[in-house]
Structure formats: structure tokens, C-alpha cells
Design goal:
Layout lengths: L17 E2 L6 E2 L10 E8 L4 E3 L2 E2 L3 E4 L6 E8 L6 E4 L5 E7 L6 E4 L5 E8 L11 E3 L19 E8 L13 E5 L5 E4 L2 E3 L4 E5 L2 H9 L2 E4 L2 E3 L8 H5 L18 E2 L12 H4 L57 E3 L9 E8 L3 E3 L6 E10 L18 E4 L4 E4 L10 E4 L4 E5 L6 E5 L19 E5 L11 E2 L6 E2 L1 E2 L6 E2 L9 E9 L4 E3 L2 E2 L3 E4 L6 E8 L6 E4 L5 E7 L6 E4 L5 E8 L11 E3 L19 E8 L10 E5 L5 E9 L4 E5 L2 H9 L2 E8 L9 H5 L18 E2 L20 H5 L48
Parallel strand pairs: 3-7, 6-8, 7-9, 8-10, 9-11, 10-12, 11-13, 12-14, 13-15, 13-16, 14-17, 15-18, 16-19, 19-20, 22-24, 23-25, 24-26, 24-27, 25-28, 26-29, 27-30, 28-35, 29-35, 30-38, 35-39, 38-40, 39-41, 40-42, 41-43, 42-44, 43-45, 44-46, 45-47, 46-48, 47-49, 49-50
Antiparallel strand pairs: 1-2, 4-5, 21-22, 31-32, 33-34, 36-37
């Protein structure tokens, strides 16, 4: 069936038929289950003849086609009009790829009522007439303007990834709107990712389509609108309050929608952000749909799996130009053939001053050589960048391994530094993490997962968020608008006034054997977040066997979730210079083979020579929830203090368990930090302190009665704090030495709701970093053992 008749209706049989474009003849009829054949594993390239502005052929036109038609694994590439258009009919389809349509990628009209699932749309910047990802009409093309004609277009669409053209910042994109819904069309839209459309992710036009939304015949569920703007800013959308249909409230509104945010997609495959969004059950929408535990079109980088395509990269092996063999980017140095790798070595060194993407290949090795900088320093003010300085984005795809060259001269240490205004984006997955590690360099000892340390520099991200230390260097138009200072290890200036600044995103990323020590006061950390802002995303990151601190925050406002620090040879988590971010779900475990191991947490506001103003602003007031701090096992005494809080630092510590620190579970040093505790700006809630002793026995703690802040009484004292015996457990043959999973005693501690402490926190069922030992759950990692499958040493 179709809803348009430009030839007299067939009165004898009572159905519409009409002429197709391009002289393609009549179509239409009464048979919903009609069969026009099978299209499976088909490419259509470079089609789309244009006869006139109103008479254009599409890559594939399904004109009045019924459900008996079988459509799977179909690509249309660079169609001159629409990629695929459905002119009425009821045909279902899945596993579609639409690349480079020169108008609309996925288009329907004339009462289309089919279902489509697993559809990947990518626009091509080279096609000037590119328009929308989806154009949805029921009937609306002259002379057919009855938007309420029946059958109404009410398709069911699920698991789409719709990507506009990928263009550099400042370049005008050819793409316009992600999904344009109009002319009376309704339908179900679920489990979609929409990004890179300057005209808006969603646009609903006309009273008839808005009427469908109001009645529930047009509905959106588990949509990730990773786009600015989310909605097209026209009068229809404003007067009808389009946002209400994504608000997850009301009988006819959808659920699970996420409006706004930054996509973490690697080329077109879901990253951690997409994987964390719970899908709407597909089978409840249409029985044709496969129930898949993810949103978007492609959720895995694994090779094509014929028996369960949705569990793999189902585009691999049969599409055109979509999965090219990885090669060394032209702006990096390629060094000939390598006997073990057919495509040789790709070297990162010096300055990277253009956007660069690294993709995994068994035939290509990536080497980090010497001090390597992403971009040139843009300065501390985004609105007034340093003239002539060039920014860049380094994107690292799933499964990429970057090996740092080992050297004898520390001046030539390999370190990766992201300068202000540039970004590092790692797109690892649980099954294919991004790894920064040391190279097995000839002439150096073999790398050992237990004992190797301090073999290269590490990662440094410089940002433009506030810090409280100026080192005599001020920035801004009048010379004193914001603080900036020099980072350790020659990593350059950092600091600014942009709380929301972004230095990129780290997802499922490991940093191994780093931490070059130049001197006692100049040491590189595994990862140094230097003045990075809240726009920087940090999810599922491990630092293992670092020569100095595992992760250190030098001021800034970056938030982090799902952190693992193992074997840090100083402090596991460290901050200073006014850090004001939030950390939830973290595990730190000390390694008895690291002789300089110190604390689980070292918390300063400002206190390192020559910066000794413990009351400098902004004060370090981070928020922490669901942290597990574990020292080295007996008889080792390398560990000292679980959490050392000093130099004016305050903060909120909630749902934390501390075990095996012979120097004390908690130590507060200095009058300034004790003043924060008295004022309630340093507070402990649901902290289970099993260390012996519980508190460091120094004069500060004794004279200030540190125990009172854990007594669960008083206006500024915490609640639900307790002491006792650790029952933490582990995984693997070294479980007893590396415990981190809650046991009975940890589970029994009353939990404090962390959400009021910081809006980025999610509700917690228990204290501690890992609540149980169940298999990794990508849609709810916190309810599972989220360390499984991507970390090293901890579970070995």
C-alpha cells in the first residue's frame, strides 16, 4: 500500500497506484506482504541520475515494496540524490550502510510502514548538496500535500548511527539536519546516535507531525543526541516545545534519551559513552527487530560474525571504503619494513600539528620517540588564542598499542604532551583497550609485568582550567587574569579560566611502566592532568607500575570514573594546585616490589616548594566516592598512609574502604586542612577504615583529635564511618595479595548517597570501588567487576 494516487484509483480493487520517478512505471497495491525479491550483500555506487529538481533517481528506490522482500547487508555509496528512499510500502530492512548521499541518506514518503534496524549513515564533505541523515514524510511533495492521507507513514527505526560530515573546526559542513520529520510522518525512533549536524540533530516540522508526537504515534526512546544544537531552532520547534518529547516524562514521551554530550565513537563504532546508554528493548517495538544490548548501529570492532552479525563490526569484509586497512598517517614518520610487521613502524615524535588518527593493525607498530607534543600552545584564553599557534587532535582507535622508546639519556625521554587548546582522544573498548607502554628496546632489560618501572615518561595533558599557582607567570589581557605555570619534565605551560575546558577524552586506556624521574622535584607521572577542565572525559583508565605518582591532578576541574592504579612507586592518586574535580569508582593497589611506594591518596591544595600558600584560591575541594585503597601485602612495609590530606586541601570523601597501610589509614596534616574539617569543607561519610593504625599518630592528629571527624556526630562530622576487618577479595592466582572486591564487611557498611555531593555521580549500592565480582556489564559497569577484560596485573 501507498497513500498517493496520481493515476485514477483502481475502483474495482480499491488501491492506490502512482508513477515512479525517472520513468520507472507504476507501483502500489493492496498486498502488505508482497515480495519483490532479495537484496543481500549488495553495493550500489555512484548512482542517482537527476532529470530535474523534482525528478531524480535514488541509489535504491523501494516503490510500494512489501514485507516479503528480503533486504540485508546493503550499501549505497555516493548517490547523487537520496541514498535509499522508501515510497510507501511495508518492506523491512537491516544492516544498511549509506555513505555520501548527495541529498538525504535515508528517505521515506507516501505512507511507508516498514521497520529498519542497524543502519549506519556517514556524510561525505565532498558532496555539496548533502542534506539530512533521515528525511521523513508521510505525504508532502507537490502536488500531494495531504499530510493526513492514509496509510500514514509510521515506520519503526532502531539502532541507527547518523554522522554528518567530519570536518575540521571552522570548516562549514555540507550536512544540515540529522533527522527531519515532517509532512504528517510519525513512527518510532529508538537507540540512535546522532552527531555532527550543524542544523540540529532533530527537526519536527508542521502541525500534523507534531500531532503525532503529542498522541504518542511519534516517539523517541534511548536517543543520544550528541549534537549542537540538539534541535533545529525554528518556530515550529520553539512553539511546540520539541524538547518535551525527549524529557522522559509524560504518557507519550520517550524514555532513556540523552540530549547533549560528546560522542566517543571511533570512526563509526560505539565508544564508552554510547555503550553506557541503556537501550530501549527493540523487540517491544517491532517483532522484526533483534534485541541488542546497545544503542547505535555498530557496537564492536570484532571481525564480521556471520552467526551473530550485531555482535561484531558487521560492516567489515563487504562494504566499500568504510574499513580501509590502517596505514601510517602522512604527517608522521614511517620507517620502512619491520621483519615482524609487513607495514613497518609509524613514529610519533616532535610536534603533531594536524588532526591525526591512529588505527590498529597487526602489521603496523606505533612508536613514541622523545618528547612529542600534540599541537602548539594556544595560551590560557580560548577566546584569544596565541596568534599563529596551531592546535591538533590526536585520535587513537580501539586496540592501538603505542610503544615508547627506552633511552639512556633522560633528556631524550619519550613523553606525550597535549598542549593547551589541543586534544588527545583515546577510543579504547573493554575488548580492545588503547595501551601506552614501553618498547622492548635492544640493550635494555626484558620488560616484566611485576617489576618494570620508570622506562619512559608518560602522558601529560595541559589545559586551560583554573589553578592556584602562578610561578610568576600570569596570563590574560591585563597580565593578571588567570594563573598559569610550567609543568614538570619540560611539559610546558598550563592553566587558565575555562572551567569546562576540554583536553580530549581517555576511554579504556592503559599507561604502563612510565614515570621518568629527572630529579627529586621534577618527576613525570603516569598521567598528569595539568589544569584540565571538566570537558575532559576520563573513563576506564589504568596506570600500572609508574615511577612516580600514578595519576596526578595539577589544579583543574576534570572528573574521572573507573580508575585503576596499580604499583605506583610514590602516590597512587595525587592532587595539588587547587584541584576541584570529582572521582567515582577507583581502585588503587600497591605493589610490594616498588620500594618507594607511599600513599593511596596524597591531597594538597598548594604545598610544594616554592608554592607554600595552603590557603591559595581556588582551594582543592574534590569530591570522591566509591574508592578502594589497598596497600602492599605483609610482610612488605613499602606502603605508608592510605589517604594523606594536607596543605589546605579539603573535599568530600564518601563510600571509601582503606586497607593495609602501616602508617595509618588517614592522616590530616596542617592547620589549614584541619580548618576545612572543622568547617565541614573536609568531610568523611561511609568510610570503612580497616588500617592499623586507623589514624597516623603524629602531633597534628593528636592535638586536633582527628578521630572526632569520624565520630558520626556533630554538624560538620561525617556519618556512617566505621572501622573493622577487611574482607576484600581478588581474582586470579594472586587474589590474596591484590584484593579489591567488596566482601561481607564492606557490603555491610551503610552507603552514603553520592549524588548530592556532585551532579556527575551516580547512585551507589555499596561502598568501595568494585561492589562484586560479576562479569563486566557494559550498560551498568558499577554493578559488576568493571576491571575485567582491559586491565593488567590486578587480576593476574
Amino acid at each position: 500500500p501507498i497513500n498517493t494516487c496520481n493515476v485514477a484509483a483502481q475502483t474495482a480493487t480499491n488501491f492506490c497506484q502512482t508513477e515512479g520517478e525517472g520513468g520507472s512505471g507504476l507501483y502500489g497495491g493492496p498486498l502488505a506482504a508482497d515480495d519483490s525479491g532479495t537484496l543481500r550483500f549488495v553495493q550500489v555506487r555512484y548512482a542517482g541520475q537527476i532529470f530535474s529538481a523534482t525528478n531524480e533517481l535514488n541509489g535504491i528506490a523501494f516503490q510500494g515494496v512489501g514485507t516479503g522482500t528480503d533486504i540485508e547487508f546493503l550499501q549505497v555509496h555516493n548517490g547523487a540524490d537520496d541514498g535509499i528512499e522508501f515510497f510507501g510500502g511495508t518492506v523491512n530492512s537491516r544492516f544498511l550502510v549509506l555513505t555520501g548521499a548527495d541529498d538525504d541518506a535515508f528517505d521515506f514518503t507516501f505512507g511507508f510502514n516498514g521497520a529498519s534496524q542497524f543502519v549506519l549513515i556517514q556524510h561525505n564533505q565532498n558532496l555539496a548538496n548533502t542534506n539530512t541523515g533521515i528525511e521523513a514524510d508521510s505525504q508532502g511533495s507537490a502536488p500531494f500535500t495531504n499530510n493526513d492521507a492514509l496509510p500514514r507513514a509510521l515506520p519503526r527505526l532502531s539502532n541507527f548511527t547518523i554522522l554528518g560530515a567530519d570536518v575540521p573546526v571552522g570548516t562549514v559542513s555540507v550536512s544540515d539536519i540529522g533527522a527531519l520529520i515532517r509532512a504528517g510522518s510519525g513512527g518510532r525512533y529508538a537507540n540512535m546516535v546522532i552527531a555532527r549536524f550543524p542544523g540540529g540533530a532533530i527537526d519536527i516540522d508542521g502541525s500534523s507531525s507534531f500531532g503525532q508526537a503529542t498522541s504518542g504515534a511519534l516517539r523517541f526512546d534511548s536517543m543520544f543526541l550528541a549534537n549542537t544544537p540538539a534541535f533545529t531552532s525554528d518556530t515550529d520547534n520553539t512553539s511546540n516545545n520539541i524538547a518535551q518529547f525527549f524529557s522522559n516524562t509524560g504518557a507519550n514521551n520517550g524514555v532513556g534519551n540523552v540530549v547533549g554530550g560528546t560522542p566517543s565513537i571511533a570512526t563509526f563504532i560505539n565508544g564508552p559513552t554510547e555503550q553506557a546508554i541503556a537501550p530501549f528493548t527493540q523487540g517491544s517495538i517491532d517483532q522484526f527487530f533483534i534485541n541488542a544490548p546497545f544503542i547505535g548501529a555498530v557496537n564492536s570492532a570484532l571481525p564480521f560474525n556471520a552467526s551473530a552479525p550485531a555482535t561484531s563490526n558487521w560492516t567489515s569484509g563487504w562494504t566499500f571504503l568504510l574499513n580501509p586497512a590502517p596505514s601510517c598517517p602522512a604527517n608522521l614518520t614511517f620507517e620502512g619494513s619491520d621483519p615482524a610487521r609487513a607495514n613497518g613502524t609509524c613514529v610519533l615524535s616532535g610536534e603533531i600539528t594536524q588532526n591525526t588518527t591512529l588505527l590498529a593493525s597487526p602489521n603496523l607498530r606505533y612508536e613514541l620517540r622523545g618528547a612529542t607534543f600534540v599541537g602548539q600552545d594556544q595560551g590560557g584564553a580560548p577566546a584569544a588564542p596565541i596568534v599563529g599557534a596551531v592546535p591538533a587532535i590526536l585520535t587513537v582507535g580501539p586496540g592501538v598499542r603505542i610503544e615508547a622508546e627506552q633511552v639512556t639519556n633522560s633528556a631524550n625521554t619519550a613523553v606525550l604532551v597535549v598542549r593547551r587548546g589541543s586534544q588527545l582522544v583515546t577510543l579504547g573498548t573493554q575488548a580492545a583497550p588503547v595501551v601506552f607502554t614501553a618498547e622492548a628496546t635492544p640493550g635494555f632489560p626484558a620488560i616484566n609485568i611485576n617489576s618494570s618501572v620508570n622506562l619512559w615518561g608518560g602522558l601529560v595533558l595541559n589545559g586551560r582550567a583554573p589553578i592556584n599557582t602562578c610561578n610568576g607567570v600570569f596570563g590574560g589581557t591585563n597580565g593578571a587574569d588567570f594563573c598559569q605555570t610550567e609543568g614538570e619534565g619540560g611539559s610546558g605551560l598550563y592553566g587558565g579560566n575555562t572551567v569546562t575546558d576540554s583536553s580530549g577524552a581517555l576511554n579504556f586506556t592503559r599507561v604502563e611502566f612510565a614515570g621518568q624521574i629527572f630529579s627529586a622535584t621534577n618527576e613525570l607521572n603516569g598521567i598528569a592532568f595539568q589544569g584540565t577542565g571538566s570537558g575532559t572525559q576520563v573513563n576506564f583508565v589504568q596506570v600500572h607500575n609508574n615511577g612516580d605518582d600514578g595519576i596526578e591532578f595539577f589544579g583543574g576541574t576534570t572528573n574521572a570514573r573507573f580508575l585503576v592504579v596499580t604499583g605506583a612507586d610514590d602516590d597512587s592518586l595525587d592532587w595539588t594546585f587547587g584541584y576541584n574535580g570529582a572521582i567515582q569508582h577507583a581502585v588503587t593497589v600497591h605493589n610490594p616490589l616498588q620500594s618507594n611506594t607511599n600513599t593511596g591518596i596524597e591531597a594538597d591544595s598548594q604545598g610544594s616548594t616554592p608554592f607554600l600558600n595552603a590557603d591559595a584560591l581556588p582551594r582543592a575541594l574534590p569530591r570522591l566516592s566509591n574508592i578502594t585503597l589497598v596497600g602492599a601485602p605483609a610482610p612488605s612495609t613499602v606502603s605508608d598512609i592510605g589517604a594523606l590530606i594536607r596543605a589546605g586541601s579539603g573535599g568530600q570523601y564518601a563510600n571509601i574502604t582503606i586497607a593495609r597501610f602501616p602508617g595509618g589509614g588517614i592522616d590530616i596534616d596542617g592547620s589549614s586542612s584541619f580548618a576545612q574539617a572543622v568547617a565541614g569543607a573536609l568531610q568523611f561519610n561511609s568510610v570503612f577504615n580497616t588500617a592499623t593504625p586507623q589514624f597516623t599518630s603524629d602531633s597534628d592528629n593528636t592535638s586536633n583529635n582527628i578521630g572526632q571527624f569520624f565520630s558520626n556526630t556533630g554538624a560538620t562530622n561525617g556519618t556512617n564511618n566505621s572501622t573493622g576487618t577487611s574482607t576484600l577479595t581478588g581474582v586470579g592466582p594472586n587474589a590474596a595479595d591484590r584484593p579489591y572486591i567488596n566482601g561481607a564487611n564492606e557490603t555491610a557498611v551503610p552507603v552514603t548517597n553520592p549524588v548530592p555531593l556532585d551532579p556527575t555521580f551516580t547512585p551507589a549500592a555499596n561502598i568501595g570501588g568494585v561492589l562484586n565480582g560479576s562479569a563486566f556489564n557494559p550498560t551498568n559497569p558499577a554493578a559488576s567487576n568493571w576491571t575485567l577484560g582491559w586491565t593488567v596485573w590486578l587480576n593476574q
